[in-house]
């Protein structure tokens, strides 16, 4: 048994996080976001490139989101300083005269690498004090993306704010034992359907994998795939800092999802789900139906985390048990190993090889 502390989590930097849905970045409108406690302003240039800047003018600190964006430059409303938004380079300081020697182009506002994947604006957040990252010159890790197994598929997005630190959000995400209680419903599973399960895990880079297996027989959505008459297999990966990948294969049919738990502040987080599939591709209204039940499912997790946050206000002593809580223990060990590792160094994995876990759910 392991005790679990309740204070705000230590944050992992030097990685990509989803800031917001990229379809919010339309025209010359800029959108504010908070990511790892950093206020940001995001937008889309006239050439389609999205950007993310620290929402603070380096001159007097007024939010740049209060200013004007013309599709090429973001201008501060206080003194008219203008910045190229992808690099953050200052283009103009209107108050300078012909007698001034200051070169505006040597001044930079905070700017972050920002790319569009799976309908999200992904922002790379470096360690505080790391200095300016030159877009296109720095070697950054790959941008996360849900796997796809064909060109024709449907997709959907879901999001929910959680009033807890990212650690509680993540171990809730990977928790295998809460399903029959939090998600008990006619369309998912019943509490009476609990039975013993055995799953095999293996180490992967900065994470671990629940190896390919037949899905739980007490989950109604999986039973629907039986109409295809093919064997069904599920693979689930967790990868630092916050990503859960799930892939379900049934012959040529497939479903995949990428779920992230992103720290908004040190004590709050947000869950984002992107799902893609080609199952029941020709069935009318399948996307609307999937979104309806998906929102219900994520909403159940959200309500539980809200209720848990009420109890956590009083800083109770908590615990992790085996085997159902072993993935949570692996997460904490992985996270600490990454925090302790030198930049670019390999992260020591707590799994030395394949492991079998058993629990009832």
UniProtKB/TrEMBL annotation:
It comes from Acidipila rosea. The keyword Oxidoreductase applies. PROSITE patterns: RIESKE. Keywords: 2Fe-2S, Dioxygenase, Iron, Iron-sulfur, Metal-binding, Oxidoreductase. Pfam families: Rieske. This is Phenylpropionate dioxygenase-like ring-hydroxylating dioxygenase large terminal subunit. The keyword Metal-binding applies. GO terms for molecular function: 2 iron, 2 sulfur cluster binding; dioxygenase activity; metal ion binding. Residues 16-123 form the Rieske domain.
């Amino acid at each position: 048994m392991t005790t679990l502390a309740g204070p705000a989590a230590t944050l992992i930097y030097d990685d990509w996080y989803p800031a917001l849905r990229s379809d919010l970045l339309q025209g010359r409108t800029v959108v504010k976001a908070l990511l790892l406690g950093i206020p940001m302003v995001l937008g889309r240039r006239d050439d389609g490139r999205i950007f993310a800047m620290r929402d603070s003018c380096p001159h007097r600190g007024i939010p740049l989101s209060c200013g004007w964006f013309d599709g090429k430059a973001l201008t501060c409303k206080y003194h008219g300083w203008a910045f190229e938004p992808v690099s953050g380079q200052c283009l103009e300081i209107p108050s300078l005269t012909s007698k001034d020697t200051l070169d505006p182009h040597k001044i930079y506002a905070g700017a972050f690498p920002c790319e569009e994947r799976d309908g999200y604006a992904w922002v790379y957040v470096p360690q505080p004090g790391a200095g300016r990252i030159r877009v296109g010159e720095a070697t950054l890790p790959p941008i996360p993306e849900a796997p796809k197994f064909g060109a024709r598929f449907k997709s959907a997005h879901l999001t929910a704010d959680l009033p807890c630190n990212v650690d509680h959000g993540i171990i809730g995400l990977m928790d295998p034992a809460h399903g029959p209680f939090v998600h008990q419903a006619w369309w998912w599973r019943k509490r009476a359907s609990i039975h013993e399960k055995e799953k095999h895990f293996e180490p992967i880079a900065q994470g671990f994998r629940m190896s390919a297996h037949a899905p739980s027989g007490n989950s109604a959505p999986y039973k629907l795939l039986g109409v295809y008459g093919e064997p069904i297999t599920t693979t689930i990966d967790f990868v630092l800092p916050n990503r859960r990948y799930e892939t379900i294969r049934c012959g040529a049919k497939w479903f995949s999802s990428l779920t992230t738990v992103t720290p908004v502040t040190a004590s709050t987080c947000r869950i984002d789900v992107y799902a893609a599939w080609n199952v029941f591709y020709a069935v009318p209204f399948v996307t609307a139906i999937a979104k309806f039940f998906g929102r219900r499912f994520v909403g159940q997790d959200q309500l539980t985390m809200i209720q848990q946050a009420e109890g956590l206000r009083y800083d109770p002593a908590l615990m992790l048990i085996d085997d159902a809580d072993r993935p949570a223990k692996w997460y904490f060990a992985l996270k600490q190993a990454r925090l302790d590792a030198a930049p670019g160094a390999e992260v020591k994995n707590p799994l030395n090889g394949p492991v079998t876990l058993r629990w009832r759910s």
